[in-house]
TrEMBL record:
Entry EC no(s): 2.1.1.45
Sites where the protein binds (6R)-5,10-methylene-5,6,7,8-tetrahydrofolate: 222, 316
Organism expressing this protein natively: Alkalibacillus flavidus
PANTHER family: THYMIDYLATE SYNTHASE, THYMIDYLATE SYNTHASE 1
Active site: 199, 199 (nucleophile)
NCBIfam families registered for this protein in UniProt: PRK01827.1-2 (NF002496), thym_sym (TIGR03284)
GO BP annotation list: methylation
Annotated protein name in UniProt: Thymidylate synthase
Family: Belongs to the thymidylate synthase family. Bacterial-type ThyA subfamily.
Enzyme class: transferase
Binding residue positions for dUMP: 24, 179-180, 219-222, 230, 260-262
Gene responsible for this protein: thyA
Any GO molecular function: thymidylate synthase activity
Keywords (A to Z) from UniProt: Cytoplasm, Methyltransferase, Nucleotide biosynthesis, Transferase
Gene3D superfamilies for the chain: Thymidylate synthase/dCMP hydroxymethylase domain
Length: 317
């Protein structure tokens, strides 16, 4: 069975057996609780082929996490807009914003074409300010203590900084049989300061037969838009760390808490389920780089990626 079938099975299961629930965004979801998918990374890179998924966005976001960065300026410099809405929300809710009313902009932009035009103008201004104005970027570009901060700069009660990612790589190299090869993004003390509490909360590595496997626990997953990114992102992270540690890749195991399809994504999911699978791509790493902290976007590429066309869907903020 191709790796991607595990994802399509999840989609069908939630459509058939999920529970319709109200949610934070007001859109509504169909949800299940507790699900696991397994992806054999030896079979190819698990980027979906039943719709085009933008690998460069996944790679630049992961590199942003690895750098310990929490400001969207780096993402915008790489033409990556996937975190914009959360930073934009901070700006339009601040005392410094004096533009048109942007309350509930995510839902209103989907329902009102005139409002969407105004929203797009304000978003374009926001992005320009982030890229060109250092003071503005410092004030409104940060997303709080999200993933990169927790991975690279966890603050202890003793005032020390813990670099979890660097530590886990060291432990994989020196004690590969350890059962403590864990990185956690869920820091209860920092949750109130985060634009979005971590959805992918904890990951653990496992070394066997010269192969590195990774299991992710994800508390909440947007099945249509978010989970395809998460699968590819953690597969890429596993490849990068295996490369640095001199290991082959094993499995990526994706364990989900609340796995949901938004009500306004049903049509898109059904379209995707009607498509046939295509052979997965292969990942190419710049083998001249030996540390994951030295990689940049130009060191990562795919070969043989020939998916079905992309399928657009609105983001719930």
């Amino acid at each position: 069975m191709m790796n991607e079938q595990a994802y399509l099975d999840l989609c069908q299961h939630v459509l058939n057996d999920g529970h319709d629930r109200h949610d934070r965004t007001g859109v509504g979801t169909r949800s299940i609780f507790g699900y696991q998918m397994r992806f054999d990374l030896q079979q190819g890179f698990p980027l979906l082929t039943t719709k085009r998924v933008p690998f460069k966005l996944i790679a630049s976001e992961l590199l942003w996490f690895i750098k310990g960065d929490t400001n969207i300026r780096y993402l915008l410099q790489h033409n990556n807009n996937i975190w914009n809405e959360w930073a934009f929300k901070n700006w339009v809710e601040s005392d410094e914003y004096n533009g048109p009313n942007m309350d509930n902009f995510g839902i209103r932009a989907q329902q009102d074409a005139n409002f969407n035009a105004v929203y797009q103008e304000q978003m374009a201004l926001f992005k320009q300010y982030i890229l060109e104005d250092d003071t503005f970027a410092e004030k409104f570009g940060h997303l709080g203590d999200v993933y990169g901060k927790q991975w690279r700069h966890w603050q202890s009660t003793q005032g020390e900084t813990i670099d979890q990612l660097k530590q886990v790589i060291h432990d994989i190299k020196t004690n590969p049989n350890s059962r403590r090869l864990i990185v956690s993004a869920w820091n209860p003390e920092d949750i109130p300061t985060m634009a979005l509490p971590p959805c992918h909360t904890l990951f653990q590595f496992y070394v066997e037969d010269g192969k590195l496997s990774c299991q992710l626990y994800q508390r909440s997953g947007d099945i249509f838009l978010g989970i395809p990114f998460n699968i590819a992102s953690y597969a890429l992270l596993t490849h990068l760390i295996a490369h640095e540690c001199g290991l082959d890749v094993g499995e990526f195991i994706h364990t989900l808490g609340d796995a949901h399809i938004y009500h306004n994504h049903f049509e898109q999911v059904n379209t995707q389920l009607e498509r046939h699978l295509v052979d997965p791509p292969k990942l190419q790493l710049n083998k001249d780089k030996t540390s994951i902290f030295d990689f940049d976007i130009h060191d990562l590429s795919l070969t043989g990626y020939d998916p079905h066309p992309s399928i657009k869907a609105p983001v719930a903020v």
